[in-house]
Design brief:
Length: 192
């Protein structure tokens, strides 16, 4: 019987939700800009299925600009309590407006307001400037629904490669590799 990397991911992710006290859905995303400069940062996984892995961000951020120039990326989950990590590589594409609207509506009001107030990744002269902008946005939406900003949306990474890493004693780790081949996944092992 063939292994399915999505089923294995779900099994490990379920265990992580039970064992990781904070942000079991935290993942590193690595992108590369138009000049080839890599950058990595933490984001939160907000959805996953057979189509891929979804996160949300300001589309004027550095990561969004990187994605615009090069849609290939890698994500990494690391769960120290389980002594496991999963690396996933693939291509990113924007989620639909309907999907982004639905997720934005599910966020807490202050998080929604923060999406309007923040010029993510741009220079900020002081924390007081950001806090004043937040209060201005709060006043603007007072008594009203906070709509999704036009510059805020999500991306879905469609996986082309998975690596499941399990820590073992004496650094004799186990590494399982899945690579997409047409419509099927091939599975193999890698030396630790």
């Amino acid at each position: 019987m063939k292994s399915d990397p999505f089923v294995l991911f779900e099994s490990w992710f379920t265990e992580a939700r039970d064992s990781e006290r904070n942000d079991s859905n935290a993942m590193t995303i690595a992108t590369v800009d138009a000049s080839g400069q890599p950058a990595a940062r933490m984001v939160l996984l907000k959805g996953h299925d057979q189509d891929g892995f979804v996160f949300y961000t300001n589309q004027q951020s550095r990561k969004a600009k990187d994605i615009e120039s090069n849609p290939k990326a890698a994500i990494l989950f690391h769960w120290k309590s389980l002594r496991r990590q999963i690396r996933i590589e693939g291509s990113l594409s924007p989620v639909s407006d309907v999907t982004a609207d639905a997720y934005f509506a599910s966020r807490g009001r202050d998080s929604q307001l923060g999406a309007w107030a923040s010029d993510q990744s741009r220079p900020l002269d002081s924390r007081a400037t950001f806090e004043a902008r937040f209060e201005d946005v709060r006043a603007r939406f007072d008594g009203r629904e906070v709509t999704r900003p036009p510059h805020w949306s999500g991306y879905c990474l469609a996986p082309q490669r998975f690596e499941f890493w399990q820590d073992r004693e004496h650094r004799l780790h186990e590494r399982r590799l899945f690579v997409i081949n047409g419509n099927d996944w091939t599975e193999g092992m890698l030396y630790p």
